[in-house]
Amino acid sequence: MVAWSSSRRHRRVEPDIHRNTKSVGSQRNLNTARTGRSGLANPVEEERAGMRGTARRMSQLGIALSLGAGLVLSAHPALGQADQPVVVGVELTGVVDPIVADHIVSAVDRANADGAAAVLLTIDTPGGLGSSMDQIDQALLNSAVPVIGYVAPIGARAASAGAFVLLSCPVAAMAPGTNVGASTPIGLSGGDLARKVQNDAQASIRKLAQTYGRNEDVAESFVADAASITAEEALADGVIDLIAPTAQDLLVQVDGRTVTLGTGQTTTLDTANATIETDPMGAFMGFLHSLLDPNLAFIFFWLGLGLIVLELIVPGHIFSGTIGTLLLIIALVSFGVLPVRIIGIALLVLSVIAFVVELHAPGLGIWGAIGVIALLLGGWFLYDRSTGVHVAPGVLLGVAIFAGLFFGLVVAKALQLRHVPPVETRKIVGAEGVALSAGVGPAGGQVRVSAEQWQAVAPGGPIPGGSPVRVTSLDGLVLTVEPAPTEHETAGQRAPAEEGGTTV
Predict the structure, then answer these.
(1) What angle do CA 153, 87, 74 make, to 5 degrees?
(2) DSSP helix/strand/coil, 455
(3) Is residue 187 over pLDDT 70?
(4) Is 319 helix (H, G, I), strand (E, B) or coil?
(5) Quick one: pLDDT at residue 362?
(6) Which of 7, 27, 312, 434 is spaced 20 to 30 Å from 378 by Cα?
(7) Are 141 and 195 in contact (CB under 8 A)?
(8) Out of 209-213, 260-264, 297-301, 490-494, which region has the weakest mean confidence (pLDDT)?
(9) What is the dihedral of CA 317, 321, 323, 325, to 10 degrees?
(10) Span 377-406, average pLDDT
(11) Are strands 258-260 and 266-268 parallel, antiparallel or unpaired?
(12) What distance in Å separates the CA atoms of residue 254 and residue 308, rounded to the nearest whole number?
């Protein structure tokens, strides 16, 4: 009965509550509508409200998680593939110099800090500075991340210092059609350095081969005999570990291989499904590194000499002298890291001298021909070709043609202009003046013409000081003069003709 009575009371009050809800809409009225006056909860309404709140909170949580994951993946795309190993790719191309050495060392350090699976060092170099080579070797030998040295692409070489770098890698590989060796130390004189330096180089490369269990005798022959071998020969002789046509094929071949690091520790490579993340050199540093090129060094050296000679022959061309000096300095810096031969430099200097002689003693063009021949031979013998470093034939021919045109047209025309007096100076021919107190004669003297004092000569004989003179020609800044008739003499010569009379 109580229950019925309560239910009846609930039904009587309900219409009022709904009216209040519609008119006011307060939270208090909504709660009263759900619980009734008795304060007892309506189970159905409570369950529906709870489900709606839970769904709303789950939706907000899902949106927050999606946004957070998107931000993280956009900032670190590699984290989306956290299970996939990463191989850091870095290149050793061109001359081994301090610029590329710093770049490689930095890449190896970052790979160690990031815990990369390996470092893939692609090599194509003619050699370079021994100090830069040592810097790279030390970084590779002390790396906790295995470094895979790879001579590639087809036609590449690991010559001179490049052979040392390759043998410093725990894994040494080459692409087909590549070569390694020719590591005899070469100085500016073109011959071997001191015996003790060569012995040290032989011991160093032998030690590198011992570190990884490679053929010590063949490695030593790179220094002792300047030997250079192909990829197939290197694999057969036990100098390298494998041959691979591509970088991806190389990573598949070395996957699962246990290698010994330079520190003596062993590690197993996990590279089959690795992603290669290249570490390129910056644009500015890459530009500086590209200047140390055998072809550019040849061009800069000869062009620098030519511009300096132009400055000496025709003074006043400040830009030619400045640019020539800068080019010559860059070329000499490059020669310091390249296997230069002194005979090549001597022939290039001879070519410039021959062109200058041809300009001052024109004839049958014999000196010009000597200059072209010396230029071609100088470029051919400029580098020790056994190391794989040489001037490209196209570059050599192009520079020879340019040299002939440069000295035959540009410098020759400049010399002609040098001997042509300015327009203002040429106006003085025919002008009259007066010899100064000391007079002027065949040996020289001074005259005053157009209110200026000049050096002058009088081939016809001495002219006393104070006598009038007339300028007949100009040679540089020296006038050629002759006696000028006085006004009285001129009038006396004109009178008989004008009057038609006779002289007494």
Answers:
(1) 120
(2) strand
(3) no
(4) helix
(5) 59
(6) 312
(7) no
(8) 490-494
(9) 180
(10) 84
(11) antiparallel
(12) 55
| Cα separation, 136 vs 19, whole angstroms | 87
Give dist(CA 328, CA 83) in Å, integer: 53
Least confident residue range of 292-296, 315-319, 417-421: 417-421
Residue 159, strand partner residues: 181
Torsion (CA) 19, 21, 24, 27 in degrees, nearest 10: 160
Pair of tokens at residue 56 = 């709303």
| Percentage above 70 pLDDT, the chain | 72
- 443-446, Cβ contacts within 8 angstroms, sequence gap of 24 or more: 444/478
The pLDDT of residue 19? 41
The answer to whether the Cα torsion of 216, 229, 337, 119 is positive or negative is negative
DSSP string, 152-221: -STT-EEETHHHHHHHTSSEEEE-TT-EEE----B-TTSSB--HHHHHHHHHHHHHHHHHTT--HHHHHH
Phi and psi (nearest 5°) for 307? -70, -35
Who has greater pLDDT, 145 or 477?
A: 145
- Residue 288 in tokens: 């500086």
The predicted pLDDT at position 503 comes to: 38
- Rounded to an integer, what distance in angstroms lies between the CA atom of residue 278 and that of residue 324? 38
The tens digit of pLDDT for each residue in 284-315 reads 888 888 888 889 999 999 889 888 877 777 66
Contact between 205 and 223 (Cβ < 8 Å): yes
The conformation of residue 365, written as its DSSP 8-state character, comes to S
CA 150/CA 240 separation, integer angstroms: 10
Residues whose CB is less than 8 angstroms from the CB of residue 225 and which lie 6 or more positions away in sequence, other chains included: 184
Structure tokens at 202: 């032989």
CB 466 within 8 A of CB 483: no
What the block records as the tokens of 51 is 């489900």
At 407, the amino acid letter reads F
Greatest Cα pair distance in the chain:
182
Looking at residue 494, what is its pLDDT? 46
d(CA 251, CA 502): 120
Q: Which residue has the tokens 């170099």?
A: 125
- In Å, how far are 88, 222, 431, 456, 497 from 120, measured between CA atoms? 6, 24, 82, 78, 106
Compute the distance between CA of residue 503 and CA of residue 142 in angstroms, rounded to an integer.
Answer: 116
Band of the pLDDT at 21, cuts 50, 70, 90?
A: very low
Whether residue 346 contacts residue 305, with contact meaning beta carbons closer than 8 Å, is answered with no
| Tens digits of residue pLDDT in 268-284 | 999 988 999 998 988 88
Cβ neighbors of 411 (< 8 A, separation 6 or more) are 309, 310, 313, 314, 355, 359
Amino acid at 164: F
Q: Give the helix ranges, DSSP H, for 361-444.
A: 366-380, 393-405, 412-418, 423-426
